[in-house]
Amino acid sequence: MAGYNVKEDPRHERRTVSVEELRRLIEAARTGKPYKSMTGPMRALCYRLAVASGLRYKEIQSIMPESFNLDARPASVTVKAAYAKNGQTSTLPIPGDLADDLASYLADKPHGKPLFPLPHDKGAAMVRTDLEAAGVPYEDASGRFFDFHSLRCELATLADAAGISPRVVQKMMRHSKLEMTGRYTRPGLSTSKRPQA
Length: 197
Description:
three-stranded antiparallel beta sheet; 3 strands; 8 helices
């Protein structure tokens, strides 16, 4: 698998969704039909992992079973430097309920192989399919879009709404500048209650 460490080029203004809409998206994915090689339950786990950890699409593509330490407290996932935008290996915490579900999913997965067969450069199309099933618009009235990378925005927004300090959110997002974290935070577009992730 080729390494990934390039600057992202945002193609359009992204948005966040409410906690209720996020729950509907995850449930629509879980019960939905396969999208290419990704089953519904796989997509639901991917979305939850993206919101909980802030991992980008290509970072999740690189994740293997051995990337997780589910026995740690808190459980964690590690993305290698070759696949991280900042070029640094990072270990990120994940919540217990997600760790439990991942443990079940990982049970029969071979080490050394990507955990999720995410289609190449099809993250937005995949999410759009589940948004339609959930009755959540892909584009809002202001022309802002919700794609896979918007799940990363959800992490920053939910953390901000929960009262976590901007510097801590910056660390969670692995941003070099606080200004960048501010661009990912959409206060007022989500509630302070975190979804099950």
